[in-house]
Amino acid sequence: SFQRASMVANISKAQAVDPTTVKVTLSKPNSSFFNGLMDTRVPFAPKEMDEIGWNDPLKMGGIGPFQISEWVKDQKMNYKKHPNYFRPGEPSFDAANWVIIPDRASAVAAFLSGQTSVISGLNQLETDQIKKSKPDANLYTWVDQNWQHIRPSVEYAPFKDFRVRKGLFLIGDYKAMAEGYYTDGWAYQAALSPMFPEAWGPDKVKSLPGYNPDTKAADRAEAQKLMTAAGYPNGKGIDFQIILQNTSGTAYPENSQRFQAQMSQVFPEMKVALKPYADNASFSVPQAKGEFQMVSYVITAAPDSVIEMQSQYYTGGSRNYGHFSDKNLDALIDKAQVELKTDARNAMMEEFQGKFMTDWVPMFVLGAQPARVMVQGNIAGYDTT
């Protein structure tokens, strides 16, 4: 119910000392506290919002450069420039108008016709199409903090066994999956997003068993040994379902299909089925409840590596949907959370990344996805954001 709870752990009290100062008391040290407050999904709001209610956006208060001026559910949301914004001369636009276009093809068409100014989440086909039709549009691309994954649930008996999780991970061809959907612009990722300075870089991750495309045959041979040792030769006795959100413009359907094909190729007696959900609302319920055997989804990284690992893999973590639990992992995260010295904390994250691959394998991280945004040619300054 509270997916972002891990962002602000250990708060016991918060008091307004004066109009511009808040004093926060923690039950124990939290080296991630300030980073957690800066997560874009943990917005600040006036406390009176609970009394006013959250159903009418026109009554909502915030601290941004725009204030909402019009809202029609599932159709549009328009904003006007805030006259008292604290940065002189900003924002640069008098208005920012959002039109809701649920169909992906229609969204691309709207950009091509000039109805919209910005379009994001582009795949290679869409990018090529827009470049051809709108040669003056600008393409901005970078490695995103969003990472695709396939997560097993340890509530399903075979996935409790480390050998099974490791075996399935070694099977995956992560280069084929990423290139199959994105073509290029993506990056290899293991436990931590490459945006973290303490994270293993894409080159190192690419050299690891499972990720290294040059050792895939040997990795799959090792996977077969692990599965046999666990009592599932050729995958016999394992029958599971992957849930996914089946919406256009997302990688989940193709990731699931490729993973399913790769598993069937190596483990012919294993049964892998796909269960798509039509939208995010219906998909989110079984994921949040942990009512699945395996899930294909995406995570937007937290702004702090310890928060990221705590929320995803700690026992009871707010986004630990697969219910993974290991006392050694929990102890390492507890130690890192109260460590206020950067070098010592980073050393713990280095240890975490190693054990993630050798001792735990709680999830199959597919890679960090590319961000691709096209902006109409008459708009300048997007790079400054």
Summary tags:
385 residues, six-stranded mixed β-sheet, 13 helices, three-stranded antiparallel β-sheet, alpha+beta
Structure notes:
Helix 5 runs antiparallel to helix 8, helix 6 packs antiparallel against helix 9 and helix 12 packs antiparallel against helix 13. This protein has 385 residues and is an alpha+beta fold. The protein starts with 10 loop residues before the first strand and ends in a 10-residue tail after the last strand. It has 13 helices and 11 strands. The protein has a 6-stranded mixed sheet with strand order 6-11-7-10-8-9, sandwiched between helices. Strands 3-4-5 form a 3-stranded antiparallel sheet, with no helix packed on it. The radius of gyration is 23 Å and the shape is globular. The longest helix is centred in the C-terminal third of the chain and has 19 residues, at 342-360. It has helices at residues 33-37, 49-52, 104-112, 124-133, 162-171, 174-182, 202-206, 216-229, 252-266, 280-289, 305-313, 327-338, 342-360; strands at residues 11-18, 21-26, 66-72, 76-81, 95-99, 118-120, 138-152, 239-245, 271-277, 294-300, 364-375.
